């Protein structure tokens, strides 16, 4: 896959990593615009290719009363407005076959959630839209097994596929990142490290997922050193009151320092 194939993606001729970043879920237009504007300001300064991320619906919830979204069409329209106002590509995750054609009308990249990446019909439906497809590696899958998920996309004639590692289950309530998997998956497609989801602590007795945001820079630095093509970071200006995944999101106030450090590391790695 060539990054230049993603519509509106800037700085693709450089040697920087690319970034998928934004809130876990679209909570409203104002919050989405506020986050997109700030992330774009930072990535423009650092010449990082940037894709705005936001889920139009959250289908994978521990509790039945958890926030799932503000309405599909409403959230998708906000994603389209973000793309139009800031001239950036957007990515959202899909959960059902019917979501593929719907979301493809509004966004540039369709993301397959980790729990669903083995669902052949869903992956093929995303690929057949002609959009870029981002495959989240299942927490229960080996890096080697992701070649078969990637082939489900390319088998439709759509070569625009990337793989995202989001950690592997370690016991019941923790994740680890096996950095040995990065060079393996890069053989199949450009590989992204989902920093914030890798730091989730799922299956809490409260039904609300925990996390370790204090470790975000540690994991991100290791990813850059190990040659990931891109990073995935969920960020919010008020994580404590975010309606989804607030426990593992990066506070937007810390994003510029983090990315500045990571760009410096990337330059060093590229010079070796």
TrEMBL record:
Catalytic reactions on record: D-arabinose 5-phosphate + phosphoenolpyruvate + H2O = 3-deoxy-alpha-D-manno-2-octulosonate-8-phosphate + phosphate
Major location category of this protein: cytoplasm
The protein's enzyme class: transferase
Origin species: Dokdonia pacifica
Pfam families associated with the record: DAHP_synth_1 (PF00793)
A GO molecular function held by the record: 3-deoxy-8-phosphooctulonate synthase activity
Subcellular location, record wording: Cytoplasm
Domain DAHP synthetase I/KDSA stretches: 13-265
Domain of life assignment: Bacteria
Name this protein carries in UniProt: 3-deoxy-8-phosphooctulonate synthase
Keyword tags: Cytoplasm, Transferase
EC number(s) from the headed UniProt entry: 2.5.1.55
InterPro entries: Aldolase_TIM, DAHP1/KDSA, KDO8P_synthase
GO cellular component: cytoplasm
UniProt family annotation: Belongs to the KdsA family.
Pathway: Bacterial outer membrane biogenesis; lipopolysaccharide biosynthesis; Carbohydrate biosynthesis; 3-deoxy-D-manno-octulosonate biosynthesis; 3-deoxy-D-manno-octulosonate from D-ribulose 5-phosphate: step 2/3
GO biological process: lipopolysaccharide biosynthetic process
């Amino acid at each position: 896959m060539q990054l230049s194939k993603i519509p509106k993606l800037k700085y693709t001729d450089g040697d920087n990593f690319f970034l998928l970043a934004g809130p876990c879920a679209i909570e409203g237009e104002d919050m989405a615009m506020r986050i997109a504007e700030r992330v774009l300001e930072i990535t423009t300064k650092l010449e990082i290719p940037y894709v705005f991320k936001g889920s139009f619906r959250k289908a994978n919830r521990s509790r039945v009363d958890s926030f799932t979204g503000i309405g599909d069409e409403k959230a998708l329209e906000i994603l389209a407005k973000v793309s139009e106002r800031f001239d950036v590509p957007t990515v959202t995750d899909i959960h059902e076959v019917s979501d593929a054609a719907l979301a493809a009308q509004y966004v540039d990249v369709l993301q397959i959630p980790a729990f669903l990446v083995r669902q052949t019909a869903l992956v093929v439906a995303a690929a057949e839209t002609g959009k870029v497809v981002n495959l989240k590696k299942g927490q229960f899958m080996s890096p080697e097994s992701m070649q078969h998920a990637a082939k489900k996309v390319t088998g439709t004639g759509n070569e625009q596929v990337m793989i995202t590692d989001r950690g592997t289950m370690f016991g019941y309530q923790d994740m680890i990142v096996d950095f040995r998997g990065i060079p393996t998956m890069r053989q199949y497609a450009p590989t992204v490290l989902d920093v914030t989801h890798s730091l989730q602590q799922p299956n809490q007795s409260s039904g609300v997922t925990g996390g370790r945001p204090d470790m975000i820079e540690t994991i991100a630095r290791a990813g850059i050193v190990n040659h990931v093509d891109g990073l995935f970071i969920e960020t919010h200006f008020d994580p404590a009151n975010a309606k989804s995944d607030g426990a593992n999101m990066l506070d937007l106030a810390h994003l510029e320092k983090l990315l500045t450090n990571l760009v410096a590391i990337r330059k060093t790695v590229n010079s070796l």
